[in-house]
Design a protein that fits this description.
Helix content: 25-40%
Number of strands: 3
Strand content: 25-35%
Distance between the termini: 33 Å
Shape: globular
Order of helices and strands: HHEEEH
Low-confidence stretches: none
Number of helices: 3
Radius of gyration: 15 Å
Mean pLDDT: 84
Length: 98
């Protein structure tokens, strides 16, 4: 994967022809979910998105800090709705493990 600043037009233009639309869409959904948790490398959370027939399916896992309570969620939506739904469902999961 390649990352750059959102305002770096030259770099974005350079990599745009090489971007994989499926990866861009699914990783955006994954990031929306993780962002709600303040996702970093030390939190017990994970998200995995797949795209099939214009539907993104996101699988999310979150655990309590002591790892005694582990929750899973799976949901699907279209590309235009998935990030908002991912954020909403992440908030619900976070509340259920607090």
């Amino acid at each position: 994967g390649v990352e750059c600043r959102a305002d770096d037009a030259a770099t974005l233009a350079l990599f745009a022809p090489r971007a994989n639309p499926q990866t861009t869409i699914t990783s955006g959904a994954e990031r929306a979910s993780l962002r709600e948790f303040g996702g970093g490398c030390t939190l017990p959370i994970g998200a995995h998105g797949t795209l099939e027939d214009d539907q993104i399916t996101l699988r999310v896992m979150v655990a309590s800090e002591d790892l005694r309570d582990v929750r899973f969620d799976r949901f699907s939506a279209g590309p235009n709705e998935i990030e908002a739904l991912a954020a909403e469902r992440a908030r619900e999961l976070q509340a259920s493990t607090s």
